[in-house]
Amino acid sequence: MKIAFFDTKPYDRQSFDQYIDQYDMKIKYFESKLNEDTVALAAHSDVACAFVNDTLNESVVNALVDMGIKLLALRCAGYNHVDFKAAYNRLHVVRVPAYSPYAVAEHAIALMFSLNRKTHRAYVRTRDNNFNINGLTGFDFHGKTVGVIGTGKIGRIFIDICKGLGMKVIAYDMYPSEIEGVEFVELASLYQASDIISLHCPLTKETHYMIDDHAIQQMKEGVMLINTSRGALVQTEHLIDGLKSKRIGSAGLDVYEEESEYFFEDFSSESIDDDILARLLSFSNVLVTSHQAFLTREALSNIAETTLENIKAYQEGKLLVNEVCYHCPEGPSKCKKKETGRCW
Ligand code: NAI
């Protein structure tokens, strides 16, 4: 199996190289992101391996199929960037459903702590021999209400940590299931009652721009918003208005709706053309990290192992446990995966 590996970073290479010898596969690493301009690099490969900010629209899917690629191995959990209409019946898509929910939940907590106690600002001050603490006042998390949207693998771990901090946890999920000590409420009630809101749901048609002006207007004055899920859950221009009006007291963002242009790359010697991102970065009460919530040693190892196991299962004609279930045109009763282990 020849794998065309896109958007390679040094940490990817390190984690995949430590396992690859155990498999009958060869990886060709490309630093470029996968898109219409770079897809030709995948020629003569059997598998395309992509990450969160690669482009997997109809034209890229068509190009992969045309060059004979039958498997797209995503190194991430989210798959909102794949055109499944184009892929159905032509390109199997596997993913890594969970590499470390702890990594992401802990990063959300890290953003909360930094924003609250302003450690990002304190760091800069003391580096400059400025030991003044004016303007760095935070609040006790203990006793505050955190609203969690999406109570899956990451949301639940986040909830456990918040409970440990002595916070009251309320939650909203489209498919709520009981969690001890957590009250499930409607979105409007969550917005009204939460001192901190953390997003842990996937990006879907329903959740796209769920945090817009209408939602922000219902929130408590000074609320802290944390987004480690997907950028387009938040209408960024409305978030900026919310920050300017001080309805939003602070925001911790590991994701941004237009991140693919910038995140994971070094622009420190250039200016940023994206005025919305530049405005976000100008607020001292906004902390932007570059989609790094997943980035722990444990998560990288899990990503490498699961991706290579997914490819091996395909290679050996076995059940593709991590194939993303397509919306079967024949309806769920005709789901082929149950019989054949594959979506088609
Ligand atoms: P999960 O699938 O275990 O949980 C998602 C939860 O969201 C489920 O409980 C589901 O019922 C709920 N949900 C679905 N639609 C909803 C809606 N319309 N409203 C409210 N809740 C809804 O997923 P997991 O592993 O917890 O990941 C959550 C998200 O975190 C992913 O979708 C991904 O976007 C993001 N993520 C971010 C990473 C990063 O590095 N920043 C890394 C990994 C995941």
Describe the overall structure.
- With 344 residues, this protein is α/β, with parallel strands linked by helices.
- It folds into 2 domains: 2-99 and 296-340, NAD(P)-binding Rossmann-like Domain (Rossmann fold), CATH 3.40.50; 101-288, Rossmann fold (3-Layer(aba) Sandwich).
- Helix content is 33%, strand content 15%.
- It contains 12 helices and 12 strands.
- It has helices at residues 10-20, 58-66, 84-87, 101-117, 119-127, 153-164, 187-193, 213-218, 236-244, 275-282, 297-315, 337-340, and strands at 2-5, 26-29, 47-50, 71-74, 92-94, 145-149, 168-172, 182-184, 196-199, 223-227, 248-253, 286-288.
- The strands form 2 sheets. The protein has a 7-stranded parallel beta sheet, with helices on both faces.
- α9 links the parallel β10 and β11.
- α1 packs across α11 and α4 crosses α6 (153-164).
- The chain is globular and about 60 Å long.
- The protein starts with a strand and ends with a helix.
- The mean pLDDT is 95.
- 1,4-dihydronicotinamide adenine dinucleotide binds at residues 77-78, 98, 101, 104, 149-155, 172-175, 200-204, 206-207, 228-230, 254-255, 291, 293-294.
- Residues 77-78, 98, 101, 104, 149-155, 172-175, 200-204, 206-207, 228-230, 254-255, 291, 293-294 line the site of 1,4-dihydronicotinamide adenine dinucleotide.
